[in-house]
Amino acid sequence: MSTNAVTEEITYIRAVNEGLRWALREYPKALILGEDVALPNGPFGATRGLHGEFGDRVIDTPITESAFVGAAIGAAMRGYRPIVEIMFMDFTQVAMDQLVNQLPNIHYVSNGGFRVPLTIRTQQGRTPGSCAQHSQSLEAVFAHVPGIRVGLPANPQDAYDMLRSAIASDDPALIIESRALYASRGPVELERPLAPIGRAQLRRPGEDVTIVSWSRMVGEAEAAAQRLEAEGISAAVIDLRWVSPVDHDTIAASLERTGRLVIAHEANRTAGFGAELAAWATEERFWDLDGPVARVGAPDIRMPAAATLQEALLPSAESIAETVRATLNAAPA
Amino acid sequence: MSTNAVTEEITYIRAVNEGLRWALREYPKALILGEDVALPNGPFGATRGLHGEFGDRVIDTPITESAFVGAAIGAAMRGYRPIVEIMFMDFTQVAMDQLVNQLPNIHYVSNGGFRVPLTIRTQQGRTPGSCAQHSQSLEAVFAHVPGIRVGLPANPQDAYDMLRSAIASDDPALIIESRALYASRGPVELERPLAPIGRAQLRRPGEDVTIVSWSRMVGEAEAAAQRLEAEGISAAVIDLRWVSPVDHDTIAASLERTGRLVIAHEANRTAGFGAELAAWATEERFWDLDGPVARVGAPDIRMPAAATLQEALLPSAESIAETVRATLNAAPA
Amino acid sequence: MDAPSLPETYRAILTIRRFEERLLSLHQEGLIQGSMHLCNGQEAIPVGACRELRADDALTATYRGHGWAIARGLPLPDLFAELMGRASPLCGGRGGSAYLCGAPYGFLGENSIVGAGVPIAAGAALAARRDGAGAVSLVSIGDGALNQGAVGEALNFAAALALPLVVVVENNIYSEMTPIKEMVAIDPLAQRAAGFGIPSVTVDGNDTAVVQAAVAEAVARARSGGGPTLVEAMTERLVGHYTGDAQQYRPAGEVEAAKTREPLTRLRAAAGQELGAELAVVDEEVEATIESAVQEAMGYPRPDPAGAALGVYVD
Amino acid sequence: MDAPSLPETYRAILTIRRFEERLLSLHQEGLIQGSMHLCNGQEAIPVGACRELRADDALTATYRGHGWAIARGLPLPDLFAELMGRASPLCGGRGGSAYLCGAPYGFLGENSIVGAGVPIAAGAALAARRDGAGAVSLVSIGDGALNQGAVGEALNFAAALALPLVVVVENNIYSEMTPIKEMVAIDPLAQRAAGFGIPSVTVDGNDTAVVQAAVAEAVARARSGGGPTLVEAMTERLVGHYTGDAQQYRPAGEVEAAKTREPLTRLRAAAGQELGAELAVVDEEVEATIESAVQEAMGYPRPDPAGAALGVYVD
Lengths: 333, 333, 315, 315
Ligand SMILES: Cc1ncc(C[n+]2csc(CCOP(=O)(O)OP(=O)(O)O)c2C)c(N)n1
Ligand SMILES: Cc1ncc(C[n+]2csc(CCOP(=O)(O)OP(=O)(O)O)c2C)c(N)n1
Ligand SMILES: [Mg+2]
Ligand SMILES: [Mg+2]
Known about the structure:
The complex is a heterotetramer, with two copies of chain A and two copies of chain C.
Chain A: E1 7-11, H1 12-26, E2 30-34, H2 50-54, E3 58-60, H3 65-77, E4 81-85, H4 96-102, H5 106-109, E5 119-124, H6 139-143, E6 149-151, H7 156-168, E7 173-178, E8 185-189, E9 201-204, E10 209-213, H8 217-230, E11 235-239, E12 242-244, H9 248-258, E13 261-268, H10 273-284, E14 294-298, H11 307-313, H12 317-329
Parallel strand pairs in A: 2-3, 2-4, 4-5, 5-7, 6-7, 10-11, 10-13, 13-14
Antiparallel strand pairs in A: 1-8, 6-12, 9-11
Helix pairs in contact in A: 1-7, 3-4, 8-12
Chain C: H1 6-28, H2 44-50, E1 58-60, H3 66-71, H4 76-83, E2 107-109, H5 117-131, E3 137-142, H6 149-160, E4 165-171, E5 174-175, E6 178-179, H7 191-194, E7 200-204, H8 208-223, E8 229-234, H9 254-261, H10 263-299
Parallel strand pairs in C: 1-2, 1-3, 3-4, 4-8, 7-8
Antiparallel strand pairs in C: 5-6
Helix pairs in contact in C: 1-10, 2-8, 4-10, 5-6
């Protein structure tokens, strides 16, 4: 079968669905747990058809995230490979003990006695009208928790590939999808070998500045790069994909050429994951930097529901482009 | 009364106790809630004597952090000024929904309709033998949550002063104490005006490098500076005190002189709060930097119980000094 | 209190119903963005319960809270404006459908985290008890919410401290798209309360008077220092879990059957010919009220984007 | 199974007691660092319960879990070594007193977050049910833990899915330093279970046979698909909540009275003259076992600091 033959143009959420289907076929011990994932086909359709095909391996749970994340941990310790859906990133907060105090400790503290091949799927970010409790981007929190791999797919192919890599891994992994991208379409090759966890992707090479981004902001960064091109500025765009582990090599290679770094994410700026990348750059690549590193993120706010307010707060292609321009112009006072 | 007359040499935990006593006297609507805080005088003695003096304003709660943090929020919305003890930082994780999705949203989302003058006290860090679930340093997580002030006192005077400032504030605040410092003594002036929230303290001026630290690591940083002095290296030491808001001015003033920045904390390195400070430096003070910024932190681990293992992982005066030396020697490859 | 007349009750319920229906059309017109959780069919619960509340009582609801807000007396124009993302006096557009509140009305707000309002409401009850004026705190949650850890913790907290808390469980037989009966091993749900030492009752939630009577007893217990009560009110959603829910998970005929049992149908039947004409007048008046509220709401300005980042802190 | 003889039971309990006491002396000698939560007085519960477990069952405990580990068959030298921060085959010194585990023994481990083990144990029960071999998952928690949100969630989860879970509540009448009776509005605690549709029983936790019988019934129910059970075992701590707890909160005479009811005292009384001599032999044998275990433990090397950061990930 040629590679082209299995490439389909599908939505991001459908790619997730295909990834889950792959997992249930590939691993007899794979289970899916979550709210409304079985009979109702998943609140966003990620599990569509899976209960029909795989029966009671797809389990509707009560609305008790601590219970079902914890149960998935226990089942994983006893040989299963559970995949858990937490409906919104914000809801991870009711299960943080299991996610932070339990899950990432088990392999290390048991000195390898137990493995927890558990994958958590969730989605985050703002969509028009989403309230303060349904809009947060919290990847930085999990990137600060050693013992969990954390990836944020920015397109349908990655939604499929990264999910499969996470599930195949014997380590706990958190896949943070983007609700705003669920309906977006792209080509997805279904029969691909598993990709290693932690590889970034250079979306676009460039000479003047390196823009690193992930999740929904990758599209904004690419749009910014296009605008900048028209102005004669050549911006490289890197989709980081994983915030744990980070592919420093791909960033370093681009930074070596451009000497300038801009990081863009939807999360609040302060102590966001952009801070980590900026810190890394100044720590490890100081002599490659021709000027200040810059971060683009939400201005440390709670998310209001009104779309007009939301838009004033969110990074965009334009605010990224503007930051790039300012960065390139930065000079000693 | 002269200032000296009210300065006492007391322990850090006793200073906390005095701060709480002050609050209960000062604010008729102040309440204390937590596990074992009333009749048993607090698991670490922070509330010693307060139930005796203030009766049912000091409330023993069931072991249900979501319930009593939530209840404190509700009481605050109805005019009280609760002070909550969460026994270990690690236990915040069972109450994260109240701490992240509820508490910091209320003033903003209600458009100022409600205020939540709630102070949470907890303590963190490793002590010999403390297990992986009783050793985490998680200040970076809360620094990434706009709407809560976050402070980490490093000595008895600050344990007293910062707690009072937090309680007096009409914003939610989290005071993260250091269990390892509870028994340490220092002079505490009890009759001081309230200090503004968010001021760092230059503990020691220096010409060659600026070390920024907080909580237990301030002592290590000062010890490192002493060692370095013997080697002819003049290190400034700043106790950051608050990670939200950050006193950038104090850091900037020192950085302007030294041109070199080292940040030291006990938390895991990656996405720790050191990242934020390093990012700020490279973003806002790039032209002041004479070389790479460096971070000292735990190497992205879970905390083992065995003290021999713990010690191999924790930053210390020596590892800070070593990082300073490496930083000063850093040169383009 | 005098028992409210049938047309009065009808008006209260119809106002909520028409509010929700109008939201849907505003949503379709693009004047409201994002999903909403409507309470069509469940209105008798907030209407009955809020009749027992005093101005100094605290009320906390869920994302399915428009009915509670209206029953509590939040102005319709303000509510419409808030949901349209306008600078309403409630939250200035910051709350939206699922997370609005109204401080001047003792409305601590909706909550869009399942179950999270109960600990907060327990805190309001603690405040009420300390204030000593006999105020209570009432919180509504769904059937599914009862399983959340925070709810169990708060029930125990309120029971242990004997707080003046009334928990109203609106059992609409579904938690999102999953039948609650498959998610618990108890029936009725009110049985959960006994495990915390809390008295409880299961009542017909489609009858305002029945709800009111149950809440009256709970409130009386709370005001007199008797501690918390759980009231389970049985009801059915006539619409999807949220706007956009196609309800494929509901068995054929279920919604139709529910429509024969819902509060407005019942009140119309009970009204008979005698009061029928009066209800027709109410229909028109409510229609007019709703429309004028929408118009008034449209008059509120959009919130100033320049202020979007302000107010995260008091200081 | 034949009922174990009195001296056998005595040996099992005494082994745990002497283990805990020896820990205390090792702590005083500076050979163990950090605080520990000892189970002196509560030993009959793990001894009785673990007699009903098969090798393929899962066991989960709390920080007060040394007795459970021993009753489950984890080797004493390994346990001593783990607590001394040595490279034990259990966790290599990474677990310590409050958070050790033993994968080869089906011991999912202690947990130092109150209540957090119950969801995990429910997952082990889910695995057991799917495996279809009739294995069960048993988890012990304290009285105070029963109020934690995660515990309530897990009880409901296990009930709704009819999982083979046995929850043993060791009611030692204190949660740390606060009497449990002040923190709940129910008595007995087992009443909590009914609110989740879970059968429960309250038994004398100081009598191994009584505990074993209650757990036998629960395990039988679980193995046969009958779902979860909660067993509340009444007991008393003879020592502080943790090493270093001066127990000023305990009323005068309470500990002394407890000593007249604790398992070893009872067994010695029941033994009478007949078996008394046999018990004296057991005393000596246990003493020797403990000492040789300590010696063996001292032979384990300290963990290599160079490996401290390794093993956070499998890959
Ligand atoms: C902690 C948490 N988990 C999941 C959700 C998603 N969610 C929103 S409403 C809902 C169903 C709640 O059901 P129920 O409590 O019965 O209330 P109803 O919607 O029927 O009024 C769910 C699962 C959430 N908002 N919060
Ligand atoms: C979530 C959480 N909150 C608080 C603590 C601190 N703590 C440790 S043991 C304990 C008491 C638990 O009491 P109980 O469940 O009765 O068990 P016991 O200690 O009596 O065996 C507390 C509050 C903790 N470890 N975890
Ligand atoms: Mg419902
Ligand atoms: Mg106890």
